[in-house]
Specification:
Layout lengths: L9 H4 L5 H13 L3 H14 L4 H13 L3 H14 L4 H13 L3 H14 L4 H13 L11 E3 L2 E6 L2 E6 L5 H8 L4 H8 L7 E5 L5 H10 L4 E5 L3 H13 L5 E4 L2 E2 L4 E5 L22 E6 L11 E4 L5 H6 L2 H7 L2 E5 L3 H13 L2 E6 L24 E6 L19
Parallel strand pairs: 4-5, 4-10, 5-6, 7-9, 10-11
Antiparallel strand pairs: 1-2, 2-3, 8-9, 11-13, 12-13
Helix pairs in contact: 2-3, 3-4, 4-5, 5-6, 6-7, 6-8, 7-8
Length: about 400
């Protein structure tokens, strides 16, 4: 349930008593349990403007709290009819319909909310919980632990702790039991037991866990993640999967050793937690920046880099390692403003590059969930092979530096 207030126009701000002031007063009454007072004020607003959506929505909430469900549905439907992008009203309408057992209509409203705003965490949680109760989800999709916005499930590549408010990784694990599975299937062919792999921008460890199991106990994964809370989740996932071949580093990776700011993330609300760039941040939590070369690796066979626009910087700090071991690289390249620089840098390192654009959704996912919440979203990555490598690449578009990504 979400209380809403109405944004002010310039003309309203100049008036001694605004609609905003009136709604704020009603909301205060509402939050403090004085429903009759709040209802009276909302009705006064609607007497002047019968189609004012915020008051319709908040009156719908009062009707719901008063167990007048049909009235709540009427008011909430009228709110979205007058404001078609009103996500909170769609979500609350879904809650009321779900309470009445109208699951299909409720699910449709939750999905509408997520279509308009994929980061609406409460609508996502409501949809999944409703589907769990109705038995729509595969039994193996059940949570082992469900604590607030954090969950643990037994997923395709291991037991995973994740935040359901993360609109990509978290929700993918929650619904599908996997994340970007085509990407994992693709990189599996380059991993062999005993290899040393680097996961730069490890996030909560989806790639880390996968690689650690693929290369076996005699191999080693170096996982680097700058965000403290996400790093703690990474460590939890390494531990809960009983992996002793992973070294985790709470650092950023760059061209030289130093420090950088990591911005604060509101983990209790929806967002793309792995999509935060550090390149232009001048405030937040200060953490260390390392270089791959400074880790002084004895071997390096495979490097995955996904660090939100800092890929070129990380590669410059890995020149010695790359020149020495000629590892296979799997590098994200989805930012137009940094793409050409990244491509030219890799060319200068004597690598051939190939586009790889895996979809986020896998119709044959681990939890057998049919709905595609990601629509046509893809990742844009490059497979990078040393020019003198014996690896044969076929059926992939080679990067020339001039073609569209």
């Amino acid at each position: 349930m979400c209380f809403n207030t109405l944004p002010l126009s310039m003309s309203e701000q100049q008036q001694p008593l605004t609609i905003q002031d009136t709604i704020d007063l009603a909301v205060r009454h509402h939050k403090e349990g004085r429903l009759a007072e709040a209802e009276t004020i909302y009705q006064q607003i609607l007497h002047k403007n019968p189609n004012e959506p915020v008051s319709l929505h908040n009156l719908g909430l009062i009707a719901h709290e008063s167990a007048n469900y049909e009235k709540a549905i009427e008011l909430l439907k009228k709110a979205v009819a007058n404001k078609p992008d009103f996500t909170d009203a769609y979500n609350d309408l879904g809650v009321v319909l779900s309470h009445l057992g109208k699951t299909e209509e409720a699910a449709a409203n939750f999905r509408t909310t997520l279509t308009i705003n994929p980061e609406h965490g409460q609508a996502y949680v409501n949809l999944v919980r409703m589907q769990q109760k109705s038995g729509e989800l595969d039994p193996k999709a059940s949570s082992l632990i469900d604590e607030g916005y954090m969950r643990i499930k037994r997923c395709k590549h291991g037991v995973m702790l994740y935040n359901v408010n993360d609109v990509y990784i978290g929700r993918s694990l929650d619904l599908y039991g996997e994340f970007s599975e085509e990407e994992f299937t693709f990189i599996r062919q380059f991993l062999k037991p005993g290899m040393v792999c680097c996961d730069l921008g490890a996030n909560i460890g989806c790639h880390t866990i996968f690689m650690a199991k693929a290369i076996g106990p005699k191999g080693r994964v170096i996982a680097v993640e700058p965000n403290r809370i996400i790093f703690q989740t990474l460590c939890a996932n390494v531990a809960v999967n009983a992996l002793t071949n992973v070294d985790t580093h709470h650092k950023a990776v760059g061209a030289q050793v130093g420090q950088i700011f990591v911005p604060e993330i509101r983990f209790a609300v929806g967002g793309n937690f792995g999509g935060v760039s550090l390149t232009t941040i001048d405030h937040g939590e200060k953490i260390a920046v390392t270089t791959l070369d400074s880790l002084d690796l004895e071997y390096c066979h495979f490097i995955k880099i996904d660090i939100e626009g800092m890929e070129s910087s990380a590669l410059r700090g890995a020149r010695e390692t790359i020149n020495k071991f000629k590892p296979t690289l799997y590098v994200e390249n989805d930012r137009p403003e940094t793409s050409n620089e990244l491509i030219q840098l890799l060319f200068s390192m004597d690598y051939r590059l190939f586009w790889h654009r895996p979809p986020l959704f896998n119709p044959h996912n681990f939890f057998n969930y049919p709905g595609n919440i990601f629509q046509s979203i893809i990742s844009i990555n490059m497979l990078c092979i040393p020019k003198d490598s014996s690896i044969n690449i076929s059926g992939m578009q080679e990067v020339t530096g001039t073609e569209p990504r």
